[in-house]
Write a structure and sequence with these properties.
By secondary structure, the protein is of the alpha/beta class. It is built from eight helices and 15 strands. Strand 9, helix 3 and strand 10 form a beta-alpha-beta unit.
Amino acid sequence: MPTNLQVLLDHRPTDTVSPANFRIVEAPVGAPGPGEVLVRHQFLSLDPAMRPMLDDVRSYQKPQEVGGVMRGRTVGIVEASTNPRFQPGDAVQGEGGWQRFSLSDGRDLTIIDAKAIPLQAYLGPLGLPGVTAWYGVNRIIAPKPGETVLVSAATGAVGSIAGQLARLAGARVVGVAGGPEKCAYAVKELGYAACADHKSQSFADDLKAALPKGIDGLFENVGGEPFRQALRRLNDFSRIALCGVIASYQGAPTGVPNIGLLVVRRIKMEGFIVFDHLDLWPEAIRELAGHVAAKRLAWRETIRDGLENAPQALVDLLKGENFGKMLVRVT
């Protein structure tokens, strides 16, 4: 059997994340025991939410254990199994972590169809990012035809799907992204009506110009200055789906400049964690799969080769250097 390359959390970051916070080791690959499944990973998902779990603080997910294999969602192929639900050769999605192989009792594994749809799509539009976008758009913003929806991190794994779902619901969608290339992609490929570059010196004026009728729905992924500018453009009875605040993960927390604004304009703001709504995942994935099969959804991926490059890829993700979903090709 080949060795199992693993990435461990060596020590917690005191400020920004560095590859030095991780340690790469090799370990034996164990044979599956009774009822177990051995999976060879093909792709590893990197997500902004991995940054908070590196700290030893209370959150919706438990902190990453120092010295343990970094947690993360994976897709791969069953190598061996003593579990009757899984056969060698099955494509599966699960919580395999930052390693080449994982042993599981099967409870975290889902068999997926890798023939009609690329395997890694189950870590993107048909996985956690897609379901997150679906919930925020459909259950919180609930856009009506003709309304305006603003999406921050508009070309990211979650934002790109959220923007397209809002557009499919009949809304006029405006994006916020970092750089001219990402903004051009948002308009030309994802169907946004406009996109404002938050790295531009004229960002505030550009965003105002792109929102002549204000904002009815805000899908917020970033926080920071884009969020503060968006608050100035919210209409009466607007809805905010607060998905993430990546600008605060390695910097100062994002505050609400004038909380009275929420009262005066009767704004609904709801933070959400998609794992609280597992009962809705089958419905969401069915709908998303239909859009993918009909080519109504586009997505983009940044793929880094080699598990040993996962720590640097996470650093780059947190700096916004990815374009679309950040993945590591494990093998």
